Recover the amino acids of this structure.
C-alpha cells in the first residue's frame, strides 16, 4: 500500500516536472514526447526493449545518441544497447542486399523480420536517415507490427542557402542573426552547429551554402577557410556538405589581379589554385553558389562574357574534385526596357547546352522574386540540356517575415505540381528539377533558410514547419502539404487527433489568407522599400523602375494589373503553348494569376459576378477573416498546448491580424484613388488615412 | 515484488532522463538541481512540504511560479500550495513589523518560527528578493533548521547598462546581439524578456538602461516609446525599472528645433514635454543616462555650457516624476594636451555642488577605460557634494571578450575596497558610492551588461558569473569574491565540495592571469584598434593621440611606462595625499600599478630582483602558465560536469591559452625593439614574427 502511494507520488512529480519544463521551441520537431495512445505505447513497449547499432564511425555514434535520447522518452521506459537488439541498425544487411542496390547512397529500408526491426542502407548516412525515419514513424504514431519502409530521395542535393554575412547579419533573416559565429571559429564549435546539423539530417537536408549570395570574397581567404573547414568537419558525420558563395571579383579583391575576366589566364589560374586550396581544407567541399551580374554583383558580363563563360570557368576548376557550380538565374537589368519577368528566360535560354556538366542553373520558383504567389518560372521545362535547381525561399521575405504564420508547403506544392507541358501533359515542374524529365545526372533544390539565433531557431514557432517542409519535399516532392503538416504537428505540438486537425486546418488556411490580405488575384511586389515589411503600393521614386511597386500593379483610372499577354509584354509566350494559351486569355487564366498577366478595368466582371474592384476589396477582407478564423482555432487550443508557446503564437496571430488590416487599409485606400469607387459595405472601413499609412517608416526593420 | 521493480525502473529512467537533458546554460544559476547531500536533503524534505504565498499581485504570482518550479526539483518530491504552508511568504508579517521598519522597500527577513519558515518584507518586490534569498540558501546547501536572515541592499539603484543599438547590434557585446527585438515590440513579448527579468530579480538588480550610451534619439519617439512601455510593463512585476539614454541633440534630431542649448527656452520646454510624454507611457520610468561631449557625442559644451548646466536641465524635467539623471564622467578631449587620465577629474571637480539633487555622476572604476587593471578613479571621494555612481564593465571589452574565462569579482573588489582616504583611513571607494561617506540620499551602481542572444546569455559559460557577481556586489559590496564564487558555482556547476573548490581556484586565478598575459605591472590600452581584440602595442597612427597604444606605454630605448608622478603629468595628485604619496614613489607604488604611474628604465630593479624587462617577460609567461593551470583544473572535472558544457569551456580555455601566447609574443617582440635585451630563457620563445602579428586583421570582430 505504501509503495503504491509512492508510485502515485512519483507519477505526480513527473507530471509536474513535465509541466514546468516548458517548451521554448529549441528542440524543433525532435521533442520525442512520450506516446500518449495507450494501445500504441503498449505495442511499442512490447516490441522495443534494446537496440543494436553496428559500427563505430562518428555517424554511428550520432545514431546511438539519437536512439538513447529518443527511445526512453517516446516509450517511457529504459532502453539499452544490446548485442542483438529489437532494433538493428546495420549497413548492407545480408537479407536486403539486392533491395539496397537501387536505393543509392541516401536510401534506406526499414523492415520487420520476426521480432526485430531492421534499418539498413548502403551508407552510414543512409543509416542515419533510416534511424530518423524510424523515429518519425514512432513519433507520428504508426504501428510497427509490420513496418516496411523503402525510402530514397528524389533529388540528390538538398541544400539550405544561408544569406548570412560575415558580420553575422542575415539578409532577409527574421529570426535574429546568423548562427555562424565566425569570430569564435575555428576553435569553438557552438552547440548550435551540431543541433542544426542534426535537425537537417532528420529531414534529409544534405548541404548548406554558408554565405550570402551577395558575397564577400574574404570567405575564400585562409583565415576564413580554416573556419569553414571547422564547420565542414562538424557537419560531415551528419551527411551535410558545405558550399560557399563565390564572389566573381574575388581574384581582384583578394587575389591582387587587375581583372576577373573569366577568359583571362591569370584569372583561370587563380581560381584553379583557389579551388585546390579549398579542397585541401575540405576534401568533400560541395561547390560554389554564384549570384553574378545581378543587383550590383560583379559577373562575367563586366568583361563582355556570358553567364556560361563565367560559370564554366568555375566549373572546370571544380571538376577534378567533383564540385558543382550553382549559377543563379535571378538576373534582371536596369538598362533593359523589357518586362523584368521575361529577362532571366531571355538571358539563359540561348545558353542552354553551353554549360559544363557540373553547372546547375538555380532558378527561383517564379519569375519575379519570391512573391506571396507567383506562377512557375518559365525556365522550368524550357531549358532542356542544363540541369535546373529550384530555389525556394523558406525565410518569409515577402510573406509576413517573422510575425506571420504562413505555412509554405501549399505554395511549394503549387509550383512543383504545375505542369509545364514541356514534353506534353505530365511534365510537372518537379520532374524538371529531379532529373527525370530530361535525364540529367545532377539534381538539386535550394531553400533560402529561415534559421537564426532566436531560441526557437526560426522566430515564429510555426516557421519551423517551413524548414521541415523544405527538407521533406526535397526528399520527396510527391508528399502532400497535409501529410507533411500531419507529421510536423504531431512531433511539434500534439499527438491528439482533434488538436492535430485544428492546427492543420489553421496551417492550411494560412498561405491563401496571406495572399488574400497582401497581394490577391495576381498582384505582386507591393511591399515597403528595402525591408519589404508591410504595404507600400504607392512607392514610385526608386532609382530602378522595376524596384517600384507601381511598376508591378500599374493601377490607373482605367484599371489595374500587368499586361503580359501577347498584346502586352508577351511574357506568356515564354511558357509552352498549352500553358501560354491559358495564361493569355483572361477568361481562362486562373483568377489567382489574373493581374499577373492582365491589365483589366475596375469593372471587369469576375467569375463571382463581382466587379474587379469589389473582388479585390473582398479578397483583402477575406484574408483578414481567415486570420481571425486562425486566431479562433488557436484560442480553442489554450488548454492543450504548453502555455509559453501558446501565448507566443497568440501574440503573433494578433500581430498578423493587425498587419492584415494594415494591408487592406493601405492598399484599398491607395487603389481607390484610381478606381474612384466605393469600398463595398461588407468590407470593414479603413481605420486610418492613406497619409498615415504612407508616413510609416521602419528604419531598423530586420533583414536588409 | 513486481511493484518494487517498477520503482527501480522509474528511478533508472529518471537518471537517464536527467543525463539526456543536457545543460545548455540558458537556465543560468537557476537550475535548481536536486540537493545531493543526503542529510540536507532529508532535512529539507522533512521541513518543507507546502508553501503559502499570501497576495494576488503579478509579483506574488511570479513568486508562486518560482516556488513551484524550484522546490520539487531541489527537494525531489512534490510540493504544493497550502493554507498554512511550511514556507510562508507574506508582506509585513505581524511578528516582525518592528524589524522591517529599518529594512526599506527591498529588504527582507527569513526566519524560522516553530516549524514554519517565514519570508517577509515591506513590499512585494522585497518578498520576491526574499524568495530568491531562501532558494539560494537551499541551493547553496545551508541548513534551514534555524534559518535567520536579515538582508537589505547597500545601494539603491542597481542597474544594468545595455550598450544596445536599435538595429540589435551591441557595442562591446560578445554574446551575440541585443536581446531587445525592437521590431516585434510592443505586441510580442519574447520569453527572453521575462527570463532576463527573473534572473535579475534573483540577484537584486532593479534597473536597466535599455539603449546604448552612444545614443539614438529615435528611442524617444512615440513608436519606440510604445515599445519601451511594453518592456517596462513586462519588467515591473520583477522590480526592474526602465531607463533610457538621452541623446543630447534630440531636440534637433526629432524635435525639429535648431538648437539643443540647455539654456534655450524652447529646448527646456521640449525636454519638459518629452519627459512628461515618457511618463505618460511609463509612470515609474527611472530616468536618463547621458554620455555628453565624449567621443563625438553632442553635449552642452557644443553651446558653451557646462556639464552641470546640461545635466540640470534634464534633471529639472525629471524632478516632478522622481526620475534621475545619470551623467557620465567619461570625458576626455581631443584638443586637450593634458594626460587623458586627468581630464574627467579636471572637468568635474569644479562642478561639485552645482548639480541638481537628482543628478548622479556615473564614474568608471578607473580613469582610463575598463582596462584589465586600473587604480581607482580619483573622482571617488573627491566629489563630496554630488552622489557618484560606480560604472563597472561586465562585458569583457578589454578582458578577453567572449573567448576568455576571467572572473571579475576580484577586480571589482580591488576597486571597491580601495581606500580613498577622503575622510581619513576607512574611506573606501564603496562608501563613496553607497551614500554613507557623505550622506547622499541617492546611490547607484551600473554594470555594462554582457548579455546577448547566445543560448547561454553571455557567450562564455563563465561570463555568467560576472553578471551574477555584479548583482550580488551591488546588493552587498562587502561580500567576498570567494563567497560569491561559492554561491555561483554551487548553483551553476556542482554541489560537490571538491569540484566546487577546483572551480573556485580556477576562477580566482583567472583575473590575475589575464592581467599578466595582457597588461602586466600597470601597462594599459595595448589592444587592437576599434575592436580591442588582441594585442597591438605598435599602433601609433590613429587620429587622436590618446587612442593609440603608444600614448599609454611610451616605450623607448630608455624605458617604458607613463610618468604620472609629480615630475610627470602629476595625475597622482588628483588622489588624497595618503594615496598620492604612495603612487608617486616607485619604491612605494604597488608593482601592480607601477607602469601606470612611472616611466622606468628597462634595467629598473624590481622587488624580485629582476630587471623591469625581465620581469615584464616573466609576467607574460606567468599568465600563460596560469591559464595552463586553469586548463588542467578544468580537465580534471571531465567526469563531474555535463559533457556539453565541459567541452565548451575546454574549447574556450584552449583559445584562451592560444590568445595568451599571442599576447606574450606580440608584446615582447614589440617591446624588445626598444629594450634591445634578450627574452629570458624561462620564457617560451615567440612562435611567429612581429611582422606576422602586426599583419593580423579582424574586420568582423564583434562588438564595435
Amino acid at each position: 500500500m505504501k509503495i503504491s502511494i509512492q508510485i502515485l507520488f512519483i507519477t505526480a512529480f513527473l507530471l509536474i516536472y513535465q509541466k514546468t519544463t516548458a517548451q521554448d521551441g529549441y528542440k524543433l520537431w525532435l521533442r520525442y514526447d512520450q506516446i500518449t495512445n495507450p494501445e500504441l505505447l503498449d505495442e511499442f513497449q512490447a516490441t522495443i526493449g534494446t537496440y543494436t547499432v553496428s559500427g563505430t564511425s562518428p555517424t554511428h555514434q550520432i545514431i546511438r545518441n539519437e536512439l538513447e535520447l529518443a527511445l526512453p522518452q517516446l516509450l517511457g521506459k529504459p532502453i539499452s544497447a544490446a548485442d542483438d537488439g529489437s532494433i538493428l541498425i546495420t549497413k548492407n544487411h545480408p537479407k536486403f542486399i539486392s533491395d539496397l542496390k537501387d536505393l543509392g547512397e541516401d536510401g534506406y529500408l526499414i523492415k520487420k523480420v520476426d521480432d526485430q526491426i531492421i534499418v539498413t542502407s548502403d551508407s552510414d548516412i543512409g543509416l542515419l536517415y533510416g534511424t530518423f525515419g524510424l523515429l518519425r514513424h514512432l513519433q507520428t504514431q504508426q504501428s510497427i507490427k509490420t513496418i516496411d519502409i523503402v525510402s530514397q530521395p528524389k533529388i540528390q542535393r538538398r541544400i539550405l542557402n544561408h544569406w548570412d554575412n560575415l558580420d553575422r547579419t542575415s539578409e532577409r533573416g527574421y529570426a535574429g542573426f546568423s548562427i555562424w559565429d565566425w569570430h569564435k571559429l575555428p576553435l569553438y564549435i557552438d552547440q548550435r552547429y551540431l543541433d542544426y546539423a542534426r535537425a537537417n539530417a532528420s529531414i534529409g537536408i544534405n548541404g548548406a551554402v554558408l554565405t550570402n549570395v551577395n558575397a564577400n570574397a574574404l570567405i575564400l581567404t585562409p583565415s576564413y577557410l580554416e573556419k569553414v573547414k571547422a564547420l565542414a568537419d562538424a557537419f560531415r558525420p551528419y551527411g551535410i556538405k558545405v558550399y560557399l558563395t563565390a564572389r566573381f571579383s574575388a581574384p581582384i579583391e583578394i587575389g591582387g589581379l587587375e581583372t576577373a575576366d573569366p577568359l583571362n589566364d591569370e584569372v583561370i589560374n587563380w581560381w584553379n589554385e583557389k579551388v585546390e586550396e579549398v579542397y585541401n581544407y575540405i576534401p568533400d567541399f560541395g561547390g560554389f553558389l554564384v549570384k553574378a551580374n545581378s543587383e550590383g554583383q560583379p559577373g562575367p558580363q563586366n568583361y563582355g562574357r556570358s553567364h556560361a563563360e563565367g560559370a564554366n570557368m568555375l566549373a572546370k576548376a571544380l571538376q577534378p574534385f567533383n564540385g558543382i557550380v550553382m549559377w543563379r538565374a535571378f538576373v534582371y537589368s536596369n538598362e533593359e526596357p523589357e518586362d523584368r519577368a521575361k529577362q532571366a528566360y531571355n538571358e539563359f535560354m540561348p545558353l542552354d547546352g553551353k554549360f559544363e556538366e557540373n553547372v546547375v542553373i538555380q532558378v527561383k520558383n517564379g519569375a519575379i522574386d519570391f512573391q506571396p504567389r507567383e506562377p512557375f518560372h518559365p525556365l522550368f521545362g524550357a531549358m532542356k540540356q542544363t540541369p535546373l535547381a529550384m530555389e525556394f525561399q523558406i525565410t518569409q521575405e515577402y510573406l509576413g517575415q517573422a510575425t506571420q504564420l504562413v505555412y509554405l508547403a501549399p505554395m511549394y506544392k503549387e509550383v512543383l505540381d504545375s505542369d509545364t507541358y514541356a514534353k506534353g501533359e505530365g511534365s510537372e515542374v518537379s520532374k524538371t528539377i529531379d532529373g527525370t524529365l530530361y535525364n540529367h545526372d545532377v539534381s538539386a533544390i535550394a531553400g533560402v533558410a529561415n534559421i537564426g539565433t532566436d531560441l526557437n531557431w526560426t522566430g515564429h514557432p510555426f516557421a519551423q514547419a517551413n524548414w521541415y517542409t523544405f527538407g521533406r519535399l526535397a526528399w520527396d516532392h510527391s508528399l502532400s502539404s497535409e501529410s507533411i503538416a500531419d507529421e510536423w504537428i504531431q512531433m511539434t505540438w500534439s499527438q491528439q487527433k482533434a488538436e492535430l486537425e485544428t492546427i492543420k486546418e489553421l496551417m492550411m488556411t494560412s498561405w491563401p489568407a496571406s495572399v488574400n490580405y497582401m497581394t490577391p488575384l495576381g498582384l505582386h511586389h507591393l511591399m515597403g522599400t528595402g525591408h519589404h515589411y508591410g504595404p507600400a503600393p504607392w512607392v514610385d521614386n526608386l532609382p530602378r523602375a522595376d524596384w517600384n511597386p507601381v511598376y508591378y500593379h500599374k493601377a490607373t483610372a482605367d484599371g489595374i494589373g500587368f499586361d503580359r499577354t501577347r498584346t502586352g509584354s508577351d511574357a506568356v509566350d515564354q511558357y509552352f503553348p498549352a500553358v501560354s494559351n491559358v495564361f493569355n486569355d483572361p477568361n481562362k487564366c486562373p483568377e489567382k494569376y489574373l493581374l499577373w498577366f492582365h491589365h483589366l478595368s475596375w469593372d471587369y466582371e469576375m467569375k463571382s459576378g463581382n466587379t474587379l474592384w469589389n473582388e479585390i476589396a473582398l479578397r483583402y477582407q477575406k484574408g483578414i477573416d481567415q486570420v481571425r478564423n486562425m486566431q479562433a482555432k488557436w484560442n480553442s487550443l489554450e488548454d492543450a498546448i504548453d502555455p509559453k508557446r501558446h501565448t507566443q503564437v497568440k501574440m503573433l496571430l494578433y500581430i498578423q491580424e493587425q498587419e492584415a488590416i494594415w494591408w487592406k487599409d493601405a492598399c484599398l485606400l491607395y487603389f481607390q484613388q484610381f478606381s474612384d469607387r466605393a469600398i463595398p459595405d461588407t468590407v470593414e472601413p479603413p481605420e486610418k488615412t492613406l497619409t498615415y499609412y504612407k508616413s510609416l517608416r521602419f528604419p531598423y526593420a530586420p533583414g536588409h
